[in-house]
Each structure stands twice: as structure tokens, then as C-alpha cells.
Amino acid sequence: MNYDKDDDEADRIYQEIDEKMDKRRRARREAREKKEREDYERNNPKIQLQFADLKRSLGSVTEEEWAALPEVGDMTGKAKRAREARLSNQRAYAVPDSVISAASQVGELDTSISTESSDGTMTNFASIGAAQKSALQVRLDSAASSTNGAQTAVSGTSTSVDPRGYITALEKSQAQGEIPVEDINRARTLLESAVKTNVHNGPGYVALCRLEEVAGKIGTAKKVIQKGCEMCPRSTAVWEEAIRINRDNIHNAKIIAATGIKQNPKAIKLWLAAIELEKTANDRKKVTRQALDHNPQSVELWKMLINDTEDIEAVKMLFAKAVDTVKLSEELWISYARVSDPDEAQQILNAARKAIPTSWAVWVQACRLQEQLGKENLCDKIMERAVKALIKENAMLKREDWIKQAEICEEEGAIVTAGSIIKSTVGWKLDEDDERRDTWLQDAKDSIARSRYETARAILEHTISVFPQSTKVWHEAADLEKRHGSIDTLLDVLERAVDTCPQSESLWLMYAREMWQADRPNDARNVIARSFQSLPGNENLYTRAVDFEVDANQYDQARAFLRLARDTAATDRIFMKSAVLERQLGNLDAALDLVNEGLQTWPGSWKLHAVKGQIYESMSKLKEAQEAFSIGTRANPKAPILFILLARIQEKQGAIVKARSTLDRGRQQNPKSAQILCEAVRLERRANNMNAAQQLMAVALQQCPQSGILWAEKIMYLETRTQRKPRALEAIKKVENDPILFVVVARIFWGERKLDKAGTWFTRAVNLDPDFGDGWVWYYKFLLQHGTEEKQAEVMNRTVMAEPKHGEIWQSVRKDPKNAKKGVEEILKIAVTKAE
After folding, report:
1. Which 8-state DSSP code applies to residue 485?
2. In 10 A of CB 372, how many CB atoms?
């Protein structure tokens, strides 16, 4: 059948359809396969996983229990057979007389020589030597035949030589030091055999020449390569080697180059070697022109001739002739445009587009030219035309390749061109069903990781133009400006964001916070006022306004905001915020009144119960605090923190049994709560009941096998130092990507003085979850002991940028009323002192 262009086009279209359909089904197929694999592993667990809990429980077995275990009896036939075999080996046998006689003659020296050889006992040394020679011959032939390379028979033997590989080996050996004489002689024999067997083996002559050069015999090397030139006149490698080794005598080298060029006039490498032998620019140009007469299509020769020319007008003339001769060279066209005036450059690039309609590089250069001329508004139009033309010629690059070209333009300073490339090509071959938003966001993250921020900014701008109502995209754009832009650009992005998405609470809060941090409090208050108009009655906006006023020490204004919020948008959080503010200001009675007022409306709010108990605790009224927490556990039994706070109060009063009972009730109400389980283990550990702690931990890990906090507690406090690392490995296999476990592994390496590994794991922890404050605390504590001041400052700045909110140590310091007005830096320094 005839296969024409229509068939090719049909095949291409069908292939694109198949790829697109496969791409659309890929996510569902991978999810289904993952689910099936998980179901299979759950229904068919490995033996080691089935007995993992039993292995862990062996740690609680005492030495007395181990000693009381009975011995296993020998009940198998295999053991019986082994026992019979041992008994049979113990049997005694009579020693023959010949053995005794031979043993008696050990060490004696017999100097007599027997003249009789008819009985076959005469040693024939000649036959032994012949046999050794034959065996050696067989071993040599076998070794030679087993090697790779070209095999040539010489004197009945097989020799294998790889000349190119041997040249590389010689260069490596020469770089490392002096080569042993034995190796040189052995290699010389092999290479001589190779060139004698095949006299037209050019690489063999080159290898032998290099060998003689390494051996210090320059004269012999020149003779060898001269013979190679005579025997292999069409081998450019031989002529190149001859020119190189004769460079000590330029005249001879030129003669050799001329002779080689006569034999190989189309060999570009020989022409380039001949050009390098010339000293002056005029002589080099003469040789280059002669080379171009024989090789007019060589781009490399045209470049060398142009580089040796200094007059700009002459350079332009040479470029004109070069592009006329080699019309398909993008490099020559683009270089010609760069050395020309703007008007001429436009004409040159237009001619280049006609000569090479499939070249995307010419279009990019045309776009960059307009940017250099200040006509930035034309860049987008040029790239749009470029995409249409390349699609028509079926020469469109992949989307990923276009992003790389945009990053190259950004690196070279063509920022507008990079943006135009992204705008025109980032959506290539992406349909509406292909989750374009997530794809573009990932592209932006990849560009940020490569430090190409302008390209990432262009990708996000295009994504915003397509998905203007997506708050996720606006947040990514704002985060980029916050980390790698200026405060003005950040505020500009946020202003556009709140105008486009006025119902987005997170954008309003972010805008107000950044405005406040930019030391523009009045503008921040205006932002909050505008947000009230778009989102009336939003409690988060009220709380943010209160935070601003508290930071500015405007407590009356903060109270006014809270009073207005309680009247217009009353929630339990608003009452809690009001009570916390009064508690921070020392008005404990007023705080209690506000909490009680809130509990009348929201009796099931565990936060209000928790604040009430903490207020009583700060007033040293432990009995009232215990009562408040106890009422809270009955009002909201699904709040684990209330049971924990109640148990701690009871423990502080010395009622360990009551605390244990409280945590047991909490476990009954919240059987899967890792917090309560961990607190129960810690209670036993603080009471020095290590066996009970071990048993509780075994039960806890059965109920919550994916809890990082439980594994961390077990590894650091319930395992011996030698067992921490294997237990941490087991935990990481079961709980993937948990920052708590990463910090535990880093602390283990820290304790073993493996500081590099410890720093690596700390970095993984903070990169995995920047919101986990304990990771920053331990990392900073580690750097205070083993890090530089620059690294400490870097981690401090990253912590301030991340603004972490979670972590046991971090929250205990951050939520302390004494630290209410302290910033992230001060909180971090205080938390470091409490990390143990």
C-alpha cells in the first residue's frame, strides 16, 4: 500500500487522541490500582507484619520469665537422623600399616637416584615442562578469546585489542602517574600485533603512537604515526594525531596538515587543525577561505572566519554570504541579526522565517528584538503568530520545552519575552478537562525551585487570567511576591485579589496582615473596614481587627471591637477571645464573667471550659479549676484536651489514681485519640511505672498505628539508646512523611554526633511542614550548638516567615499569657530553653 502524507497525518491525529484519552484515564486508573494494591496487602499481609505487635510485646518479658521457658524437646525425625549421624562419626577404625609406615618416613631426605625407569616411577622433567607450557598456552588463548574487541591471529594465538579504549586508558594512567614498564611492554606487544595483522587499522596506529609518547619515545611515536599516515591516508584520526604530535615543529606540522587535507579535502577537523597552526589572523583567514572553498556548507568554518574578522561591515558581508550559502542554519541567521541594525535585523529575521519556517528560535529572537527596541506591546503578538506558524508547519515544541526557553530568556535578561512565551504556549495541548490550574501551579513551583521567578510569575499571571475566581491561585501569587518580590508588588497582588474575590475571607485577612507588617496601620484598618462591608458578621475579621489593636496597645479599641462582635456576630470564639484578652490584661474576674456568659449560650464549647479552668488555675484555685474541667468533660466528652487538662490538674494535686481514671474515661469516649493515649503513657512514665507505660504504648500503637506522636514517645523515652534507630526505621515505614518522626530521627543522629545527617533530617522536617513549630525549635537548638551564625540567622528568618502555629512545645509557649505580645523570634528563643 502507498503511504502518503494523509496517512501520516491520520496516524498522528490518532496517536494524539490515544495520548489524550490515556492521560484522562490515567488518574482514575492509578487510583484504582492503588486501591486494589492496598486491599490486597490488607487481605494478604506479610508474616512479619502479622507478628509485629507480638515482637513488640516481647520487650515486656522479664528475665525470670525468659529463664522459666521450657527447653524444646527433640521430636522430629530430622533431629534423630542428625543425632545418629553424629554417633556414626564417632566410630573407630583400624589404621592400615601403610599409613603408619608413611608417617614414620615423614621428614627424611633420600639422596639416592634410581637408574631403573622401566617400572614407570622415573620422573620425566621434559614432559612436565611440556605439559606446563601447553597448559599456559591454553590459559592464554582462553583469556584472549574471552575479551571484547577485534581479534586477530598472530603466530597461532588470539590477541584482542580495543585501540580507542586503550587510548583512554593511557590518558587516565598518564594523569594518575607513571605507568609501569611491564604494562608498557605488554601493551606495545599487543598494539604492534594489531597493526601488523591489519595494516589499515588507523586507531591502532594512533594508540601505538600514544603509547610510545607516554613511554617517552617521541621519535618512535612520530615514526609510527607517519607509517599510519602512509597506510591509512583516508583516516582523519591518524592525520589529526600526526599534526598534534608534530606541533613542536610548526613547519612539519603544516606540511603534514597540507598532505592530509589533499587526501581528505572534506575533513573539517583537519582544516580546523590546520587553521590552529597559523599564528596571525590573516593567515588563519586564508586557510579558512580555502577550507570554505571545499566545504561551503560548514557552519563551523563560517563562524571561525567571522570571528577572525574585526571590521563590522566585513562581518556583515560575511554573514550575508554565509546565510545565503547555508540557508538552514539558525545560528548564523540569529547571529547575523544580532550584529545588524534594528531595521536590518527585522528584515534578516523575516528572511530567516521564510528560509526556515520550522524554526522556533527565529521567532524568539524576533520577540527579543522588539523588547530591546522598547516595543514590548508587540511581543505578545509576535509569539501568537509564532504559535500559529509552527502549528501549521507541525514544528511546535512541547509545553515543557517552551517553559525551558522562557527560563533561558529570563536568565539572559529578556523578561518580557519570557512572559510572552509563557502566555502563548503554557496552555499548549491542555484541555479544560486536564486540570489546567493544578498543572500550571505545579509548573510555577518547578520554576521557583529553579530560581526562575519571572517565569513563575508569568505562569501565575496567565493562570489568574483563566481562573480569576480561584483563591488558591491568588494565594500562590501572593506567596511568590512575599518570598521573592517586594512589598509593593505583594500589596498590589493582594489588592487585585480582594477586588476580584471580595468574598474570600483568607485573602482579606492576608491583605490586612501584610499591610500591618508593612508599618501601615491606618491602611490595615481601612482594609479591615472594607472587609466588613464585603463579609459582614465574619468572626475571623473581628478577631484579626482585635489582634491589630492589641499589637498597637489600643486595648480600649480592641474591647470595642469585641463588644461589637458580641452584639452583632456572637460566637463562642468571640467570647473566648474576649476572655483571653481580659486574662492577658490581668482582669481575671472580668474574664471569668465573659466565659460564664458565653457558656450560658454555648454550654458544649470545650474551648470556653478550657479557658475557664486555666483562669482558675492561674488564680491558684485548683479545686475550682478541676471542677471546671470536670464539667467540661461531661458537657463535651468528645474533646480530648479537656480530659488531659483535668488529669494534669489531678496529677498536680497528687491524685495519680484519679488522673489515671480520668484518662481511662477519655479513652473510652475517644478510643482513637492519640493525644489521650500518649498522655496516659506519659502519666505512667512520670510515675516511674515503666512496665505499665510499655503495656499502654503497645495498646496505643495497636489502636493508632499511624500516630507520629506515639511513635516519638516510644522511641525517645521507652526504648534503649541502641534500639532507637531500628525502631525509628520501623516507624517511618509505617508512618510516611511525619515531621514529628523526622525530628526524632534527627535527634537520634544528634545524640550519635552524626551532625551532617542530623542537619539533613531537621531540614526535611521543617520543609515537610513549616507550620510545625517544634521542628523549628529543635532545629534552632541544634544550630545553637553546632551551627554557624549565618545558618542560625537563616533558620530564624525562615521561622518568622513560616509563622508556625502547631507543636506541643511551641503552643505551650505561644499561648502562655506572659508571651502574648512577643513575636516569633522571642517565642522561638523561649521555646528552645524548654525543649528537652
Report:
1. S
2. 16
Dist CA 416 CA 131 (whole Å): 83
User: Tell me, what's the pLDDT at 202?
Assistant: 85
CATH number for the 737-836 domain, one of 4.10.320, 1.10.3470, 1.25.40, 2.60.40? 1.25.40
- The three three-digit cell numbers of residue 614, written as one number: 486555666
Instruction: Give residue 674's pLDDT band: very low, low, confident or very high (50, 70, 90).
Output: very high
> CB count, 10 Å around CB of 601?
12
What pTM did the predictor assign? Answer: 0.62
- What mean pLDDT is predicted for residues 514-528? 88
Give Cα 805 to chain centroid, integer Å. 26
Scan for cell 521567578, then name that residue.
453
Burial class (CB in 10 A: 0-12, 13-18, 19+), 60: middle
DSSP symbols for 543-558: HHHHHHHHHTT-HHHH
Q: Which residues contact 286 (CB under 8 A, 6 or more apart)?
A: 278
Residue carrying the nine cell digits 507588617? 517
Cβ neighbours of 368 (radius 10 Å): 23
Q: Which three cell numbers stand for residue 516?
A: 500591618
Reduced to 3 states, what is the DSSP secondary structure of residue 246? Answer: coil
Whole-angstrom Cα distance, residue 362 to residue 619?
Answer: 78
Count, residues in the chain: 836
In this prediction, residue 508 carries a pLDDT of 92
Which grid cell sits at 832?
528552645
Burial of 499 (0-12, 13-18, 19+ CB in 10 A): exposed
* Confidence tier at 146 by pLDDT (50, 70, 90): very low
User: Cβ neighbours of residue 85 under 8 Å, at least 6 residues apart?
Assistant: none
The Cα–Cα gap between 791 and 641 comes to 36
Looking at residue 717, its amino acid is Y
The closest of 100, 124, 21, 49 to 730, measured between CA atoms, is 49
Where are the domains positioned within the chain? Answer: 737-836
Inter-residue contact 208 to 195 (CB < 8 Å): yes
Residue 433, pLDDT > 70, answer no
**Does residue 256 contact residue 226 with C-beta atoms inside 8 Å?**
no
Count the helix, strand and coil residues of the chain and give each as a percent rounded to the nearest 5. Answer: 75, 0, 25
